[in-house]
Amino acid sequence: MDVSHIFESLNTEQRNAVASPSQNLLVLAGAGSGKTRVLVHRIAWLMQAGHTSPFAILAVTFTNKAAREMRSRIESLLGQSLSGMWVGTFHGLAHRLLRSHWKEAGLPEDFHILDSDDQLRLLKRLCKTLHVDEDKWSPRQCQWYINSQKDEGLRAAHIEHLDDVYTRTMLDIYRAYEEACNRGGMVDFGEILLRAHELWLNNPQILDHYQRRFQHILVDEFQDTNAIQYAWLRVLTGEGNHLMVVGDDDQSIYGWRGAKIENIQKFNLDYPAAEMVRLEQNYRSTSTILKAANKLIANNQGRLGKNLWTDGDDGEQISLYAAFNEQDEARYIVDRVQDWFAGGNRRSDAAILYRSNAQSRELEDALLRADMPYRIYGGHRFYERLEVKNALAYLRLLVNRNDDTAVERVINVPTRGIGGRTLEIIRSFASTEGCSLWQACARCVNDSLLSARAANAVLAFLQLIDALEQACEKLELYRKAEHVIAHSGLIPHHEKEGGEKARARLENLEELITATNSFDDAEIGEDFDLTSNATLAAFLDQAALDAGESQAGENEDAIQLMTLHSAKGLEFQLVFLAGMEEGLFPHKMSMDNISGLEEERRLCYVGITRAKAKLYLSHAESRRLHGDVNLCRPSRFIREIPAELIAEVRLKSVVTRAVSPNLQNGSSRINKLRGDIEVPQTELSLGQRVVHGKFGEGVVLNYEGQGTNARVQVNFDSAGSKWLALSHAKLVALSSA
């Protein structure tokens, strides 16, 4: 049979991978090197040149979308339907096995799958039954523990507690959870894979059947496999079958959710005769972008090694912008996107990438001010995020106790023993009496309409809100937010989720405090009382308005915002990597050990290689966290890119730096001023001494905008650094710079 058409669109290395005669094959596929094409053409080659039946092929991907795309591309290439071929995700294929062999797997025929929410609800019931102190061991923490153990292939019976209180408690819950699932015929996502793996091990005849059937096993994104997935593959492959894995150790970025980079690194040890084919020709990015990525990732140790290249143009240098602060960074990025769009390009061909979800707030603010449509890829806008809405609800109750939606949201967040039955009584009373939920809570407690336990829980909530208001009465806005978040119980509540999700939620709460501080500064006038509830109400109104601005529709041309983790697998003509600072990227939680730092570097490598034509890197010289402005050091990842590949941006209005302040302790001072830069359409200039009715004397450090719309950063002698809106601040110039 003539199979020449299969190779027509392939380069030499791709052809070698597609037609490899080796029993086991590792295809080390760099970013943008055509790995999906190789997988598809390999399957076509096996069927046409190797006369392999589609029934003898098992192809594993990581998403249902990728599986559908792979099947469609194979059918298009071969011109025939492949309904008999097993193509799917690990979970999808394992589930198919369990449905076919439910009895041998020890399951009822009608077993059902628990999603994450169902699993959490079951664990909450079990924790109550076992009298587990949820303040110490939250159900979410238990959920994380059980799922992580299953990812490692471990049941409760396989684990020893060694008199460790935490492990012993988790194992008690794990055992009770296993018993409950077995009684109810339930399997969670981790159980699907673990049970399918045990199906092989406990039923040799079934394993033998599938080993004889699936002679060719192909796996995509192999660097993202966890322990149980790799074990499942190894058992199915056995001694005589053919295993082809495609992946990139330089793009292994999911260690925090169980992925084992060791799987791809040790593949040639587990399969000593395996062939390795490197796909290094890139069809996505310019040569400059690829050189930067290569030099960066070369700093990691233990790599399998490859060097991306292209026969395309060098392209533009990478632009590096050193912003004064996070507002300046966001404004610069939005300005560049506007230039891009004005040049006839689509906004949707541009993406802003960031390490931490919390970074999106400042970028969203800048985009809203510029009236530019945007879309958060794979997530919610800042003010729509669960933890932010929880904190805002507490703040709203300080202003208005009769806000029913706020009461509903946080009356039992964190959990304080106010169940559904209690809430129904309160709601019914409020409806009958025509009063607010807050008033109904108080009346139900006072009139003994609740059980003693429920009444105590409701009373504790009412007292908490009253105590928060009393403590916040004389505090400035950002201190109010700081106090409420610290004393409402939200921090330990969200911490209990564990892992990357908990960390992201806490960072968003910190960013909310930063937002209140920025609001202080932007709205300050001589008669503006920062401690009043009117200031808090104004902030809450603005947050509600921002939340009310809907994201761009699916078909609307909008710029894409996303975390670097979400960006994997995507590509854009124009890419911004924002917040390239030590402690932010690489993240401070990943800088204490080599493996964490190397995963951060791989994440940066992924970000760089998303760009096709143009890449911007940006960092801020100072960044506000809570109420403090902190000096920031540029990320080491910037230094690891050769200087000749980078062009530092010099804007006309930012040709000098007005500052070397000691910002860490709030007592900023100017060490040096170079030049005499005027704030456009005002009577002020950088370095000029001014006086403010509330904060006294200070020096102008920086500015944004012009005329009455300008904001200036002033370093006050006693109050430290503040950003002030000139339309409110009524600054009086004392002298020239």
Can you tell me about this structure?
- The protein is α/β, with parallel strands linked by helices.
- It has 5 domains: 4-100 and 194-281, Rossmann fold; 115-183, Arc Repressor Mutant, subunit A (Orthogonal Bundle), CATH 1.10.10; 318-381 and 551-649, Rossmann fold (3-Layer(aba) Sandwich); 384-523, PCRA, domain 4; 656-737, no CATH class.
- It has 29 helices and 22 strands.
- Strands 11-12-10-13-14-9-17 form a 7-stranded parallel beta sheet. A 6-stranded parallel beta sheet has the order 3-2-6-7-1-8. A 5-stranded antiparallel beta sheet has the order 21-20-19-18-22.
- Helix 9 runs parallel beside helix 11 (227-237).
- The longest helix is centred in the C-terminal third of the chain and has 25 residues, at 499-523.
Topology:
Elements: H1 4-7, H2 12-18, E1 24-29, H3 35-48, E2 57-61, H4 64-78, E3 86-89, H5 90-100, E4 112-113, H6 116-129, H7 139-151, H8 165-184, E5 186-187, H9 189-202, H10 204-213, E6 216-219, H11 227-237, E7 242-247, H12 261-265, H13 267-270, E8 275-279, H14 287-297, E9 318-323, H15 326-342, E10 350-354, H16 360-369, E11 374-376, H17 386-399, H18 404-410, H19 420-433, H20 437-446, H21 452-472, H22 477-487, H23 490-495, H24 499-523, H25 533-548, E12 559-563, H26 564-567, E13 572-577, H27 594-608, E14 611-620, E15 622-625, E16 628-631, H28 636-639, E17 646-648, E18 689-692, E19 696-704, E20 711-716, E21 720-725, H29 726-729, E22 732-733
Parallel strand pairs: 1-7, 1-8, 2-3, 2-6, 4-5, 6-7, 9-14, 9-17, 10-12, 10-13, 11-12, 13-14
Antiparallel strand pairs: 15-16, 18-19, 18-22, 19-20, 20-21
